[in-house]
Protein 1
Amino acid sequence: MNKTFIGMIAAASFFSACNQQTPKETPKQDMLLADLDTTVKPGEDFFQYANGGWIKNHPIPGDEIAYGIGELVQKELYVKLKTINEEALKKGDKTGAGQRIGDFWYSAMDTNAIEKEGAQPLREELSKIAGMNTKEDVMAQAAHMHSYGANVFFDEGVTQDPKHSDVEAYTMTQGGLGMPNRDYYFNTDARTAKIRSLYPGYIATLFRLLGSDSIEANKKAANIVALETALAKSSRKLEDLRDPYSNYNKFSIAKLRSALSPGIEWPKYLEQMGVKHVDSVIVGQPEFYKALDKVIAGTDMQTLKDYMAFHLVATFANYLSTPFEQANFNFYSKAIRGAEVEHPRWRRALDAEEGAIGEELGQLFVKEYFNATAKARYEQIVENVRNAYKARIEKLDWMTDTTKQKAIHKLMAIKKKVGYPDKWKDFSALKIDRGPYALNMMRANEWWNNYEMSKLGKPVNRDEWSMTPQTYNAYYNESNNEIVLPAAMMTVPGFKDADLDDALVYGYTAASTVGHEITHGFDDEGRKFDEQGNLASWWSSTDTAQFMKRAEILSGQFNKMVPIDTLHINGKATLGENLADLGGILIGLDAFKQTETYKKGEKINGMTPLQRFFLGYSLGWLLAERPEKVATQLLTDVHAPAKYRVNGPFPNVPEFYEAFGIKPGDKMYLPDSLRVHLW
Ligand SMILES: [Zn+2]
């Protein structure tokens, strides 16, 4: 108890210090101890035991929907980026990254101009929508809007062809909704029904701000909701989007019309979008496009115009005057995700800038936070985890030798990208000026669209990163058979990498990030891709049956968890992530057992290496979440809420019982017969 108390005080003063300067001295306190809630036993609720002390002492700030480790990592960064922006503005470069950063900042912070202009920056686009006469005009305008990021009717983009990873393909998927996904249009639980009841009011508010009277605004809103509901009805559910075969449907451009949508002139649309050098496209959900055809044909021109105008304004509302931006906040952040107050303008400006030119800022981040020694340490950890996985696969009693050999072949072929890209994106063609802010964002979206479209017909650039180095996240890209680990994901806030003990690092990074991402190559979706990144079966049918039987035990465990109200976790939709968590812990732990720290077995601050490993893993999921955010996540996200990413997998790990003396009768105890035995 005392330890916890002292730790908390130390933590509190430490965090305020690191907002000013990176401390030169090694912090004395132990973050793992400081975070504990010792009023809860590890066997009762491990997440609460590991992180509850910190959570109790750090209530979620009003402007956050969740608050924890990721926010702490980025908190220091936000302050630094703010300074970088202010200095760039002061310096006043006329060209290059300095000009873009400085002028972006000027336009985002120029509240006088933003308030005075209202919706003016969008008037030109709004009048184009108003001037449409035919359904052909509708598709031409849709193509135009997609090019600057207002995705009406459906979603699209350039991706590697899942069956031919050396080829870039144009992919069209379901989309066009103003609420997060189809479930918001139909689910009957009280939370979702409440959000649905607020949606027409939000749409009507935007139309009133554009000049409609209330009666007209409400009518427009009702028609838009009806249009979107028809699209939602033909949209697939979250779990059904995870089958790579059923979401892969290739159509020649010439046949798109006859096969899917007789009313849409696809060749013309694609030409207007800038789709070149391909004669076929991949359609994720063909039934959606059949329905879209009927929706466009059966909807009156005025409603189509209103629908497109609404999506235009909603896409850019955050960059317009306060009434627009407030309406957007009230619906998307407050009603859907539970935020109480907005982030200050400078924070919102930095978030927008991250989306627009994040990689330019990332170069500054890694200079300060991720040196060559850290990069080398984590590259070595990737190899240690990879070897641990190899040893585990070799020992499996349920997998045939042939499939084992192929699995190991794929495992050894996984490419690693650690910290930051070797080659940075070049934003010099992007025009950023001192305003209007909304038009800077529109041009940034256009830059990204051109960047993606220009990939068609060219060899795949396998060096590319899809996340900035300052992102507290990581990914496995099945088409490249690669893991990508941004620098921020390996950063413990306020600590220098060299000061972190192995047990913490192996739990925090080797298991929860490196092991997790590697295991994605072998989860229920990733296992369907081969070592080249192609969708191709390399499993025997007996091995597949064994895999599924074992994986289903895990989805069954998660289906039983009810994080809020009556909303349970969707075991099928979250299976890939939960498999990756469990696999990551097992192989991260095996790799840790090879270290001198583990072999010596010395305690640090009273904790064994094994205990620190599990606490280090839990530190990666240190997060308090608002109920609204949890509810939204359960409907829209393939990741379980943070707490369940600790308490879900741990009962399946034998060493967890050993480390904390978990016994029958404890809540976290599972008899061996009910545990998952996969990797
Ligand atoms: Zn994942």
Note: Confidence is low (pLDDT under 50) at residues 1-27.
Protein 2
Amino acid sequence: MTRNVDLLVIGLGPAGSSAAAAAARAGASVLCVERKKVIGIPVQCAEFIPLPLARYAAPEARAQSVDAMDTALPSGARSQRAFHGLMIRRDRFDQGLANAARAAGAVLWTDSVLRTLDTGARRARISTATGLREVGYRLLVAADGPQSAVAACLGVERLPLVTTRQYTVPLRRAQRDTDIWLSPQTPGGYAWLFPKGTVANLGLGVDPAFESDMKAPLDALHETLVAEGRVGADILLRTGGPIPVGGLRARLVEGDVVFVGDAAGFTHPITGAGIAAAVASGERAGEAVAGTLAGDRAALAVYEEEMREQFEPSLARGLGARRRMAGIWRTDRAARDETHRAGWIAFDEYYAADEPQLNQHGETET
Ligand SMILES: Cc1cc2nc3c(=O)[nH]c(=O)nc-3n(C[C@H](O)[C@H](O)[C@H](O)COP(=O)(O)OP(=O)(O)OC[C@H]3O[C@@H](n4cnc5c(N)ncnc54)[C@H](O)[C@@H]3O)c2cc1C
């Protein structure tokens, strides 16, 4: 038997839960489908959110504050800059957003996976713990992350990704700044330490076009920090995952399908941060869905227009920096401090580069 809803949401990360809550609050019937058995687990995140997003983190999701970013350049020179935010318990954070969607009236199916989409008939096949189910929808929100199954079903573009690897390790001395390492060992990415009370998330990301080995450089960084007495040798948790770094999709709306969060490409091309944009795009998409259901035929186009206006300037700057850096990774320039200063958000040189222009496809032209 087919179940019919106004809105079908695929994926219950921050983007999907935010979209579901906004649409359900406006009176839409909403069904959400999530592959994971328990929302938010496993955690695949360094767990930093910018301060304005802290209001979404319930007390049990808050770990500690961060005030500064300490960036190390290839020469060993360090630079500190204010960087205010919150370290969260990401599983609790995601669960809190999903609970808010449920409280607004959305129905959540966990342990359930989107298998196929018939966009003409507006029907989805979902495999659940109790078997294959068919769902009819009026609108669908694709919130299924960097390797969106919805995008694959639609045959639209795959997003370019960096890959990451992260260890959670004991932190020997409490700290309120985050460490960033820029070097030729992490081409197309960087290494990080985010403090979380008595532990830290120590990780790195690289562009697979330049490098595939993440274990050796992460183990080397871990050993150095152990020798310096900053972290413990134990590895308490291992995680990782892909991060989109190519900017927004050519189209955020494809017929009755709306892309949000990582599935849409909202993550920052240099830092890989995406939680704030996932929540913002999810909320706005949920409102636009409600508007469409109420008869506003322009609501989804306005969602796309507003999101591009809000996010593209910062994404374009990041894409411009990625493009400039792409030419240096296998050259001597990758070991020079000034190269990295122009490619990382903590330095004035990053913002001093020419304002990149976007063409009609949302691509940088500089
Ligand atoms: C190692 C790492 C560290 C990061 N650190 C940070 C950080 O510190 N700060 C920050 O802001 N960002 C960080 N990010 C990026 C951030 O995690 C994402 O931008 C954010 O999770 C995007 O939210 P989302 O809801 O769009 O997607 P996701 O959180 O990826 O949620 C998508 C959901 O869809 C589900 N799903 C996928 N396919 C299907 C399917 N076919 N059927 C059903 N369900 C499906 C998945 O199980 C998942 O739960 C990090 C990413 C990685 C990989």
Note: The CA atoms of residues 173 and 230 lie 6 Å apart.
